[in-house]
Amino acid sequence: MKRFDPTAGRLAPIAPLVPAAGVIPATSKGQATSEQASSDTIGAVIAGGTQDGILAVYNTLLRAIDLTNSDKGTVARAAHEAEPNPHPQYAALAGASFTGPVEVPAGSAAAPSLLTGGAGLYSPSAGALAAGSGGQQAVQITSDRTLIVGPQDTRLLPTALEVAGIAASVQQSSDVAGAGLSMYKARAGLSAVQAGDVIGRLRFLGRSDTGTWSEAVWLQVSATASPSGGNVRGLLRIATRDATGFANRVTLSEDGAVGMGSEATGGMGIRMSKTLVGASFTRGIWSNPAVPVTAGDVTAVEATATFAATGTGHALNRYWAFAANNIGNSAGNTVNQQYGFIANDLTSGTTNNYGFFGNVSAGAGKWNLYMQGSAPNFLSGDVGLGVFPTIARLQISGNVTGGTNRAGISLGGVIQPDVTASYNSLNSFPSLGGGGTLASLTHFSASFNSLGGGSLGEQAGFRAASTMTQATNNYGFVGSLSSGTGRWNLYMNGSAPNFLAGRLGINVDSPTQLLDVDGNTVRVRTSRTPASATAPGDQGDICWDANFLYVCVATNTWRRVAHSTW
After folding, report:
1. Quick one: pLDDT band at residue 122, thresholds 50, 70, 90?
2. Is the previous residue joined to 84 through a cis bond, with omega within 30 degrees of 0?
3. Do residues 3 and 100 both lie within one domain?
4. Of the residues 105, 121, 142, which one is the last residue of a structural domain?
5. Cα-Cα-Cα-Cα dihedral sign, residues 454, 456, 460, 464
6. What's the domain range around 213?
7. I need a labelling partner for 190 at 20 to 30 A (CA). Which of 68, 162, 491, 549 fits?
8. Rounded distance between C-alpha atoms, residue 69 and residue 55, angstroms
9. pTM of the complete model beyond 0.70
10. Phi and psi angles of residue 312, each rounded to the nearest 5 degrees, phi first
11. Cα distance between residue 19 and residue 558, in whole Å
């Protein structure tokens, strides 16, 4: 052993105090240093007795360890770096106490300078302190005050915290709050931030093929306004890099509005203004949920709104659950078709498929389908009102309620001045295609289904109301067929009587009598001979046979006039 001689200013040999190399009895006092120990791994050792303790105090002036028997009854060991030969490690048992700085050699992750419980401390470089375990670096504080977590120091970017590998988790004492990461921002002199100030940013960089670090994604929080009432309002931006460059992609406004491509402003909840590229068919928003097996009803997109304020008396002009506006098309571009809503063919594994379903009950101001625009409406398939169409292109059925006077179809409208030639409230002009054969075509058909146990006072196959008199010429029925084989303007093949209350003009449009024939011949095709002058007959009956012309002048009273050739 050697001691430091302050007079000579160097280490001087002293009498051995240990029974074996590197061991000092517990009764030793004074300064003790050592250049070599019995073990290169452990270093010099100071041992205490079973009843006495050792108090080890570092002497900064003499650069040595002062050992004092503290009578604690504990065992303590300590080793000190001697000049000029350092030892790789200090080891201390319970009861040892150190004051003042303790110098250790630099060491390495594989051979730390200070070792405890399998983990050690060492200095990987000047001004740096590291902790290692299992021969690898666990954490390092560099000379420029960067904290490195992980087995290596890339030191290629100016960062305050560097994590190499996978950061697993951080546990907080509060089970409710969980772990947290905080970033603080203040202006010079701890003054308040201002609108537009960047409060914090998380950057994710990857090594590029050119040997540089490329920022792939960052998350940035900025102040949206000057603080007020102790509150700082913030905006979150997420930016990513694609093949064309780095740009903002998603924003979360202070009021919770989400913007994709552009910030949501002007009362928007979600704004999607991303440039759609990469395919011939693109989608701004695509909902493709995985439907649970036991789900009763699934809605891919649902809109429900409530008034933000409580109470009554709030005013809202209009609410659109879904709105489609015109595409913003600059000059020179072409859009072949645009759809406010489209339902593609819905047939996959379902019983009933509805392109659009309205379930609004009847009532004032309620419509399942309301088309206010003046553009025409096109329906290629059959249409059923109150019934599924099975027998007609337009089929109307269902319960008729709502008033004492109702109509199955009511054709109104206001004829505008530009319509000058004609207007047909109901126009039928079908075509027969494909070279087929059709047995019968009826442009208008009237029939009745069932009384259903009730009663019906009157029904008409066609009715022209008495109010239809405002035109210059008013026709209850017009037939414009020209004469020809198989043509009739009026064809009544039923055996029921026909009633005409007004005058009937044949070939005359202004009859002066109930029957006015503008012609020189009236034909009664079949002869009849009354059995006697009192045969059954009605006043006005006229008939003929080969010899006489008969006229019934009163009920069952006949007269006859003989006729002959000439």
Report:
1. confident
2. yes
3. yes
4. 105
5. negative
6. 198-226+233-267
7. 162
8. 6
9. no
10. -125, 175
11. 173
Q: Which residues pair with residue 561 across a beta bridge?
A: 549
Nearest to 555 by CA among 534, 542, 538, 540: 538
Is 248 inside any structural domain? Answer: yes
Residue pLDDT, tens place only, 133-187: 888 888 888 888 888 877 765 555 556 666 555 444 445 555 666 666 788 889 9
Which residues sit opposite 64 in a β-bridge?
59
Q: Helices marked H in 170-234 — which ranges?
A: none
Q: Are residues 32 and 93 in the same domain?
A: yes
What are 137's strand-pairing partners? 132
Shared domain for 59 and 118, answered yes or no, is no
Q: What is the largest CA-CA distance in the chain?
A: 187
Same domain, 87 and 117: no
Cα(566)–Cα(561) distance, rounded to whole angstroms? 16
**507 and 553 share one domain:** yes
228's tokens: 């007020």
Specify whether 237 is located in the same domain as 216. Answer: yes
Q: Is 78 exposed, middle or buried (0-12, 13-18, 19+ CB in 10 A)?
A: buried
Q: Whole-angstrom Cα distance, residue 507 to residue 520?
A: 11
Q: How many domains does the chain have?
A: 4
Residue 367 lies in a domain: no
3-class DSSP state for residue 152?
coil
CA distance 504 to 516: 6
Please tell me whether residues 23 and 69 are part of one structural domain: yes
- CB contact set of 355 (below 8 Å; sequence gap of 6+): 343, 346
In a domain, 259, yes or no: yes
* Cβ atoms of 381 and 373 closer than 8 Å: no
- As a whole number of angstroms, the distance between CA 525 and CA 438 comes to 35
Distances (CA, A) of 548 to 540, 551, 554, 565: 16, 10, 18, 12
Do 8 and 85 have their domain in common? yes
The label of the residue with tokens 């009157």 reads: 458
The radius of gyration of the chain from alpha carbons, rounded to an integer in Å, stands at 54
Which domain-ending residue is among 149, 165, 181?
Answer: 165
